[in-house]
Amino acid sequence: MTLSGSLRPISAGVGNSNDQTRRHNLSTILTMLHHGGAQTRAQLTRLSGLNRSTIAALVAELAELGLAYETEPSDSGLVGRPSPIVHANEKIAAITINPDVDAITIGLVGLGGELHKRIRFETASVPSVRETINVVTAVIAGMRAELDTQYRVVGVGMAIPGLVNGRDGTVRLAPHLGWQDVQVAEPFSAALGYPVRIANDAGLATLAESLFGAGRGVQDLVYLNGSASGIGGGVLVGGSMLRGAQGYAAELGHTLVNSAGIRCHCGKIGCLETEVNLGRLLAVLGREGLGPDELDAVLAGALAPDARAEVDRQLDVLALAIGNFISVFNPQVFILGGSLGALYEANPERLRAAVAANAVGTLGEDVRIERAQLRSRLLTVGAAEIVFAGLLGDPAAASPLVE
């Protein structure tokens, strides 16, 4: 599932020297700093296509707005005055929320994708919207002094495992959470006192990994994520997110892989997320729940024969689905996140060989299969992007920083 609603292009583009495009140029420079990390003025000049004096003026305005700052470079031994290093201000931050069937994760992310804090609150049962609001409100209250004195919070981003309408802030259907046709953005905004934006979790993960992880610089990729809520996906085609007519494209977890399988939450039989399933894996491991990093450690250890057989079975089914997706989308890179990343790490050679055998012709041999680099930070960083989108699109609209 990809993002619904309107997001600005994920790349910074190039600058324009016309006076009427000053706001565009500010957006270009701040986006370069946010997605590309700290850079010298000379690098910004080269990458943007603007001249040095224009870059100096833009950097000065971003600094006045509190969105960027400069530091002196270390002594490089070069003759002449070295170019100052420009940074996106990591203290400009977004609060992020990711509700799932077994936990609610709250994060704090600064410009540049800087993860300041990530709190995973495990729940005894599947949380309702009201229960999620209560948990998040309590966690934010505990952070209030820190938020008010050290950061400038510009909004809240929510990563939801389901069909999301980002334009009106409603969840159409999150079957594993039991949220259906419910307004989410407004009640969260009223409780927290910040503007709230929501989007599908897998779409946000695709965005984050394409900007900060294994998909950086890749124009065509498929991302597949596994969690307690099932499997979600996202597809980047020619550098643009695949959205579909209603914004709900790439529901890859509901691809048929076993016509004799079990019934899925969606009502169909044999969906991918029922066959490659975290719950089934935890059951054979004798565990009720594991955090993202804990699953890695368990699968990397010695496994009982029945656990190893289940890992291999799920890898084979996953390879069948990936082979089909490669044949349909012809991506450069296929990225696996969440529990699917841990499953892949358990036996990457088996998965790669099976994918090559299941794809049409030699297509499977040419695709790079990788694990998401952001790992447990993925949804937190992704949810922050929908908050930062407006700021990156028009930095001039930001209120100047008051010391």
From TrEMBL:
Residues 1-21 are annotated as: Disordered. It holds the Pfam family ROK. It comes from Subtercola frigoramans. It comes from the Bacteria. The lineage of its organism: Bacteria, Bacillati, Actinomycetota, Actinomycetes, Micrococcales. One of its GO terms (molecular function) is kinase activity. InterPro entries: ATPase_NBD, ROK, WH-like_DNA-bd_sf, WH_DNA-bd_sf. Belongs to the ROK (NagC/XylR) family. The keyword Transferase applies. Keywords: Kinase, Transferase. This is NBD/HSP70 family sugar kinase.
